[in-house]
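lol ok so funny story. i was supposed to be doing the assay writeup but got distracted and ended up predicting the structure for this chain instead. priorities right. anyway since i did it might as well share w the group, maybe its usefull for someone
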Amino acid sequence: MIKQCQNCKLNFEVTQDDMGFYGRIKVPPPTFCHMCRQQRRMAWRNERTLYKRTCSLCNKDIISMYSQSVPFPVYCIKCWYSDKWEATDYALDYDFSKSFFSQWKELSQIVPRIGIWQRNALDSDYSNMCGECKNVYLSVSVVLGSENIFYSRGIDKAYNIYDSYNLKESDSCYENIQGEKNYNSQYLLLSRNCLDSYFLVDCVNCSNCILCSNQRNKEFYIRNKQYTKDDYFKELEVLNLGSRQSRDLLLVEFENLQKNAFYRYANIIKTTDSTGNDILNSKNCTECFDIYNTENAKYCFRLLNNKDSMDVDYAGKAELLYEYSTGALNDYNVKFSYSAMDAVSHAEYTESCVSSKNLFGCMSIKNKENVILNKVYSAEEYKLMREKIIQQMNEMPYVDSKGRVYKYSEFFPSELSAFAYNETLAQDYFPLTREQIIEEGHRWYEPEEKNYEISIKGTDITDNIKDADDKIINEVIGCIHEGKCNHKCITAFRLTEDEFNFYKKHNIPIPNKCSNCRYYERFTKVLPLKLWHRKCMKEGCTNEFETPYNPERPETIYCERCYQNKVI
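and the output, tada:
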């Protein structure tokens, strides 16, 4: 079936397998293409724009993803999870003379929300979207028991990680991107099972290697050449990694190394019948990105230990999720929802609910059943009301400011999000100018002007970490970008004691850029959540594949067979 997306107006295909899934969960096919569906979901997820404010219940100062301008109360984590308040006290009676989403909007303006999204996180007051972790600082999507994570994103079951992206089961790593089971290593890209190494591209099971690419099972290699152990460590001393000036030169060389390396068409490992990128130990996954231990998924991103789901971003152990975003755990049959945090089942159009089932249009509900607009019904009443509401949603749909029609089975309209478009993940993956954001019916957030009292400029920080004094912890450091970049520069930053000690221990010069600038420079290395049909670049090979490498990119891309024949 070919349909036209009512957002981008491009045609998209709904396959027989898609229709089988929709039939299983009893929903009609979507009216937005899968890319527009993902953009819409991401416009509900604010990860990195944080504010200082007070808890609306206990009045303590907190860090929150919600600004002071939101109309609803915002609670600290302790208060939100407590029994000091009850979400059903804000219940609304359903009014069949109004559209569902207009009533949902009324409810959204009065129900308290959790200030920062955390689930079972300790000592992590400055981190959002984290669960089952400890001592996490200015990091996002950190889960599975991770500890001591700083300025990172997508960290699973890892420890002592700084300035990294998508890293699993690793320890004591700095500036790692797309890696697994690395130890005591810095500036690794697409590398696994590596230790005591620096500046590697697509290396596996390597130790004590520097500036290498496409290596396997190597030790004491520099620039893809073998060294003796003694000569290796002599050269390591010459490289002078504790100096920022020396590292800057090595980073230029590392950029050239990345350009001259060759790459597998996609980072898909121990996986069958799947397309996408960064897929591990999965099967039957179509156009999925950054997923592992997952089966039967389509159009999903950042999914782990999941089964039978479609159009999902950021979810853990769960089954039968559809049009869902953010933090599912032990959930079942949850649709068109944001943040069904834990043990939620048979739920639709929910936000931030816990340990509940049979929910429709609910917010902040905990330990309840048969709830509509936060009002509790009997099981029979709930069933009848749900059917009537679905019918009414189709007969009286919500129409947004740009004329897009929302019947039953569409995710929340982005114009109802509590966040402006440029506060959200959507701006990272679907970047728009201020004019485009407004034109497309989203909200724009005008960043506040920052006037920090900088006590030391980034240009004046000591070059070598061996010369650094712990007194710098008390300084306000000016980012060398001075807010003149496109990285949401915060212009100034401070070091924590843990951070300073990590730099000292691992011979890393103190950064002269703020965490946002470092993050967005790292993000340029991350491939888009999109596939292109291409041919293998090995001369004479006729294999074709789906790849996240745009044909306009400079990398050499091989099919699986040619890649495996080429790696050393």
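The two ends are 45 Å apart (CA to CA). DSSP finds twelve helices and 38 strands in the chain.
back to the writeup now i swear
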